[in-house]
Amino acid sequence: MFTHGSVLPCSLAWDAFKIGNGATSAHELRGRIAQYRADRGQNADDFRIGCRVLTMPFFWDEEDWLDPPGWSPSIMQFKTFGTQEPDGRFLWDAVMERMARCGPGNDAGLGDDRHGQPQLIRPRLGQGSFRVKVVDSYKRRCAITRERTLPALEAAHIKPYSEGGAHDPSNGLLLRRDIHGLFDSRYVTVAPDLRFEVSQRIKQEFENGTEYYQLNGAEIWVPRSHQAQPDPKALAWHNENCFR
Predict the structure, then answer these.
(1) Are 239 and 191 in contact (CB under 8 A)?
(2) Hey, which residues does 55 pair with through a beta bridge?
(3) pLDDT for 133-180, tens place per residue?
(4) What distance in Å separates the CA atoms of residue 36 and residue 58, rounded to the nearest whole number?
(5) Taken in order 184, 189, 194, 196, is the CA torsion positive or negative?
(6) Please, which of 86, 87, 134, 149 could form a disulfide with 172 given CB 3.0 to 4.6 Å?
(7) What gap in Å lies between CA 172 and CA 159, rounded to an integer?
């Protein structure tokens, strides 16, 4: 299931998905992509690559693999198939037939009716997909400081996944790495009214924290999309259960 498209530094694509990129290491990933670049890998910079984020993958044995109709080997992007045209209907029916044979253990949520109307679903995001969507939702800037040095930014869960929090942008904040560490360690929080709060325990325990106290009470920046804005319930949970 396609969930998101982005253009990312190669290093971030590797950090987000690891071997899910189809390579065994970041070095191999860069090398394989470089074969398609004009410089043939001579440029060692962390070049940017187009990423198509997929979730809820399912896998077939090789004998069930499909050759997409009308797909030229030279086509690299933007080729689509609709179910109202012959090629798209062929693909849809072929997928449905194989999914029915695979059984419920390989269900991708595509529906049971082979010829029914395609159903819109909300794909379940994984950790890597969560990170990419949060990074893009916040325009690649820290919600607190507006820092935009991408390697220094991390997607933070408001309610940790281990506590039942979802890999959903509304359960995320893009934070500078040091602030993320303080957020997870319960020294800072974001109130449901979207204001940044800093615990007095930083000064008590570390005799420091001037930079963070200068940000205390500041309103954070949130995405325009309501679906990506912080969930007030998750923020309240962090305030009540984590903040010192």
Answers:
(1) yes
(2) none
(3) 999 999 999 999 999 999 999 999 999 988 999 999 999 999 999 999
(4) 27
(5) negative
(6) 134
(7) 8
